[in-house]
Amino acid sequence: MNVTATLFGQMITFAVLVWFIHRFLWGPLTRLLAERTKRIADGLAAAERGTQELELAGKRSAEVLREGKQQAADIIAQAEKRALQIIEEAKHAAKAEGDRMIAGAKAEIAQEVSRAKEALRSQVSALAMAGAEKILRREVDAKAHADLLKAIQTEL
After folding, report:
1. Is residue 81 pLDDT above 80, yes or no?
2. Distance between CA 89 and CA 84 in Å, rounded?
3. Are 122 and 116 in contact (CB under 8 A)?
4. Calpha distance 12→4 (Å, rounded)
5. Among candidates 129, 111, 125, which has minimal Cα distance to 156?
6. In terms of residue numbers, what domain contains 146?
7. Has residue 1 got a pLDDT over 80?
């Protein structure tokens, strides 16, 4: 065996192997590595975007929470204002009802007073008539006494 022939055979085999690897394995292998590199880069970019979106979502949620608290405070303030209005309306309504009741009571008192005056007038006129009757029984001048009784009656 010749070392030179073996060496040439090994060199040809090595050249065929390099050509075969370059032709059939190197291209797909570099494509796979490029795709994997691209996927890793895309994953890192997506993770960065996710981090930024998470920060943005945190800011938005804080803003929404602040707006919600502000709206709640506004609603509470409006409710308190409406409660004060309702209280004032109730006070005015109660005062009007009290005034109406007082006016009714005063009218009723005035009616009672007029009824009492009428009753007193009738009693006084009955007493006057009784007194006049007694006077007439004692005295004979009926005409003078009748005039006197009419004057008394008109005064009452």
Report:
1. yes
2. 9
3. no
4. 12
5. 125
6. 3-155
7. no
Q: Is the dihedral of CA 98, 103, 108, 112 positive or negative?
A: positive
pTM > 0.90: yes or no: no
Tokens for 16? 């065929």
**What's the domain count of the chain?**
1
Sign, Cα dihedral of 22, 26, 28, 30: negative
pLDDT in tens, 44-74: 999 999 999 999 999 999 999 999 999 999 9
CB neighbours (10 Å) of residue 67? 10
The pLDDT value given to residue 4: 87
Residue type (1 letter), 111: Q
Q: CA end-to-end span of the chain, whole Å? A: 173
